[in-house]
Amino acid sequence: MFSRYAFLILSTCGVFACLPPLYAWVSDTVPSTTAGSLASDLNIAFTGPGQIMGV
């Protein structure tokens, strides 16, 4: 039982490791802080359904 839980944690760390750099890149490549907040909100709004469809 413990080994299955450990492998679940390892796979979760590998799957979601790319999300924080993506959010940082999206918010850093816009010219103003208002556009940065809007860009990160849109990024989160559009990646959620994409992840659902991917599953």
UniProtKB/TrEMBL annotation:
<keyword id="KW-0732">Signal</keyword>
<protein>
    <recommendedName>
        <fullName>Major facilitator superfamily (MFS) profile domain-containing protein</fullName>
    </recommendedName>
</protein>
<feature type="signal peptide">
    <location>
        <begin position="1"/>
        <end position="17"/>
    </location>
</feature>
